[in-house]
Amino acid sequence: MSEKGILYLVATPIGNLEDITLRAINVLKQVDIIAAEDTRQTLKLLNHLEIKKPLVSYYEHNKTVKGNYLIEQLLDGKEIALVSDAGTPAISDPGEDLVKLAIKNNINITSIPGPVAAIAGITASGLKCGRFVFEGFLPMNKKVRKDRLNQLKGEVRTMVFYEAPHKLIYTLKDLYETLGDRRIVLARELTKKFEEYLRLSLKEALNYYDEKSPKGEYVLMVEGANEEEIEEERNEKWSSVSLEEHINMYMDEGMTKKEAISKVAADRGLSKRDVYNSCMIK
């Protein structure tokens, strides 16, 4: 039986073709197969690099069939490079599923680092980037989308989203209605000729795109909630409720004592041990 191949996750440029690394070029030259989200887009890059390799399409709507095919090739000893349309595979694309399949089959995986639109955007945003949360594309289902945004209302880290131009205004409205008038940085066409950063408030962004049509792919960076305000709101909300009453409220809803303590701790910004000890629950 032949030795298993290696799955390479190869980051490719998000716009400027000069952003590919020497290592990425060497890997693309050495592998047996290149699996691409859009073979036409990848072919442009390969032609630029003067690389000729068999291309296999691998995208959201064929990932089950093609994923199994690629795993078979890897088990047969082939080396495969996985690339997305732009940037790093498995970030907001079906490469994540192929990685899981490879792990399940004990296939070695190597990541060839390079461009990531989220990182390129946040580092030049001017917002806090020591700690941030990456949300990618928001769900399109209205209920799921609303629930996701409500979960982010108290998020104190900078939030990073991806968005397509035809959905941008819809997303800006939802962000404004749920999060309030936060600061936002809109980065578009990163690394390309018409790269642009707009540093506005959410309300200003909505006004701006009332008069101008969105163009290009966007990375949105939204400032996190004010930690002091969140703490004040939390204290005010629960100031009239004792810890015992708070715990009993959740237990009356069907939670176990342990679950209720955990939820109360999260509500009040306390440790579970502190809640337990304060109530002397036995």
Keywords:
single chain; 282 residues; alpha/beta; Cobalt-precorrin-4 Transmethylase, domain 1; Methyltransferase, Cobalt-precorrin-4 Transmethylase, Domain 2; 3 domains; five-stranded parallel beta sheet; five-stranded mixed beta sheet; 12 helices; globular
Indicate the proportion of strand residues.
15-25%
Superfamily (CATH H level) name of the largest domain: Tetrapyrrole methylase, N-terminal domain
Average pLDDT for all residues: 91
How would you classify the helix and strand content by structural class? alpha/beta
Physical arrangement of strands within the biggest beta sheet? 3-2-4-1-5
Question: Approximately how much helix is present in the residues?
Answer: 40-55%
Poorly predicted regions:
none
* Number of strand elements: 10
What's the assembly state of these chains? Answer: single chain
Write a short abstract of this structure:
The protein has 282 residues and is α/β, with parallel strands linked by helices.
Structure description:
The chain is of the alpha/beta class and 282 residues long. The protein folds into three domains: 6-115, Cobalt-precorrin-4 Transmethylase, domain 1, CATH 3.40.1010.10; 118-225, Tetrapyrrole methylase, C-terminal domain (Methyltransferase, Cobalt-precorrin-4 Transmethylase, Domain 2); 228-279, no CATH class. Helices cover 44% and strands 17% of the residues. The protein is built from twelve helices and ten strands. The chain has a five-stranded parallel beta sheet, sandwiched between helices. Strands 6-7-10-8-9 form a five-stranded mixed beta sheet. Helix 7 (168-179) packs antiparallel against helix 8. It is globular, with a radius of gyration of 24 Å.
